[in-house]
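Quick start: read one record
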Amino acid sequence: MSRSDKNPPSVPPRGKQEPLPTPSLIQRMFGGASLGQLYHFCNRLSTGLRAGVDPLRLLDAESKAGATRYRDAAKDTADKIRLGYTFSEAMQLQKGFFPPLLIKMISAGEESGQVDRVLGYMSDYYQDLKRTRQDFVSQITAPVIQLLLAILIICGMIFINGFFQAGGPNEKPFDITGVGLRGINGVMIFLGILLVISLILGTICVGIWKNWYNCHQTLVPLVRNVPVIGPVFTTTAMSRLSMTLSMMLGAGVEAKRSVRDAVLSTGNYYYISGLPEIESAIQQGKSLSESFSEPNRLPDEFIQTLEVGELSGADSESLERLAIQYREKAQIALKQLAVAAGFLIWFMIAAMIITVIFMVFMQYLAILTGNLPK
């Protein structure tokens, strides 16, 4: 998958080309490949490359089956490679169809000469991710349906509340909710409040994902030791780091480049921010285990495994085994997160129901005591 030595006349030399475009958030969210497509893409190309099949023939075969967007991306990737781009560069030009993680991992594979191994690892990664997502959805489907039913019931109560009339000119109409929401307008206000809350929570989630205001520096240290949530933030990133570093070291790639590509492959800005300290330690002649321990950000388990691997001369093999262990831990953590999310939704339903019952009871008590608002 290396770039040809001589580019066609229509393609400027690489140093004079425009920087590769960065896909927008919309393109990545709505124009990207599905997990199933990514799994089959990586699996078939990995199998073919290991068998010695020409990569362009494999991409041409991919362009003949599947959804239209998938076929177009595979064909255009092959065309870009023929023009002199590397595999990872050609994938990056597909307007966000391929995820950044896969592109970074393949770029590392190109540096180490092990693209087939990267694709095999990523096919397992996407298959596991797809299964975990299915488990997550199945775990929270019932609670979400019940939450929607609870919201629908409350909307019904607010709507019915609009039919109650005042008993006299100086009396207020009976309010079953106790908060003054009535009829269609009350329903719209209630749904509007829920929408605002949802938008706020969604914005917070996107902000954490995109590391707005460098929030990973504060959040990751706080949550990485928290059960259920912490492992989700760390184990997946450490699996990527271990696997990438294993491939780079196994291929004899220069240490500084190996470390840089491995840390960037995590996609975790907390770990990435420690990269300058790691690179500085390497330049000072320190070992990899000593260099990775400089930022004091990575787990002790990783540092110890790397140190033992360096002493035994089997650092690549040790890191590969550690990557598999981290990936298994990530699967367990995501399943636990799904269960926790289900309980959280159950708690929200219970809180809404208890609140409604309490408000109705207070109104009934006011009727009995004659303390209805005038």
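The first helix runs from residue 25 to 30.
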